[in-house]
Design goal:
26% helix, Rossmann fold, five-stranded parallel beta sheet, 247 residues, alpha/beta, 2 domains, OB fold (Dihydrolipoamide Acetyltransferase, E2P), single chain
């Protein structure tokens, strides 16, 4: 088993202590030092040559991104921050992963797994789901979505519907409708079937957004979502819907 010599860079002592406590469960992580700011971190990186940085972004005098610019050779980086708006920038500097405070132990485990397996899921140039690819995405997961120059980093629970549109899928959340070059089937394989239901060939709906249901033509159903969208559930899927959702 490879041991990763690890430096914690975090200006808040309690946050460092919490992260150290979580990392105790991982035999592959050896904490070789702690830095309270970017300047301290640069000195320690020169001295210790760590394999991995757990790096806070918002720090006094020099933030995490500015600190990285001073390095000739950059170790693996896992950002740990209270803010999700930096996800795209973390992606641009080839971070291994991006964890939100308070750190979820399961997400931390996924990040360490990427490190151990040499995976770079977070660095994929395609539209990216921030979750392990061997499990279904839950409502608590956050997803990174990119459409042209626009990017979003949102909780999956906010996505109320996905619509097939030619070779693309239109994702409905808030007032946004980004298009992703993927098939609806690929989304269905990843989404938790307890919450996301394939209504017909063109639509997947988030059941938590359904506000009303009515009988429709030819034995089908029609649902209305909280934002007013109406989606027909095909006859075949209506049978499955009743089996899954009925008491």
């Amino acid at each position: 088993m490879k041991i990763f010599r690890t430096l914690l860079i975090e200006d808040e002592r309690l946050a460092r202590e919490e992260l150290k406590s979580l990392l105790k469960d991982f035999m592959e992580i050896e904490i070789v030092g702690e830095a309270r700011n970017g300047s301290e971190a640069l000195e320690m990186i020169k001295k210790l040559s760590p394999d991995l940085l757990f790096l806070d972004i918002n720090m006094p005098e020099m933030n995490g991104f500015e600190m990285i610019k001073h390095l000739e050779e950059i170790p693996q980086v896992i950002f740990v921050t209270a803010y999700d708006e930096f996800a795209l920038k973390a992606f641009e500097v080839n971070a291994l992963d991006y964890l939100l405070k308070p750190v979820d132990p399961k997400r931390l485990q996924e990040a360490i797994k990427k490190l151990s397996n040499g995976e770079e899921d977070f660095n994929s140039p395609s539209d990216l789901f921030l979750a392990s690819k061997d499990r279904a995405l839950t409502l608590e997961d956050k997803v990174f979505i990119k459409d042209g120059e626009k990017c979003w980093f949102i909780e999956l629970r906010k996505i109320r519907m996905l619509e097939s549109d030619g070779n693309y899928v239109k994702v409905y959340f808030d007032t946004s409708r980004p298009l992703l070059l993927r098939s609806l089937n690929s989304f269905e394989e990843r989404l938790d079937a307890r919450f996301f239901f394939r209504a017909n060939r063109k639509f997947i709906i988030n059941l938590q957004w359904v506000s009303s249901i009515e009988n429709w033509f030819n034995g089908g159903l029609r649902v209305e979502l909280m934002e007013g969208e109406k989606v027909e559930i095909s006859r075949r899927q209506a049978i499955r819907f009743k089996e899954v959702m009925s008491l």
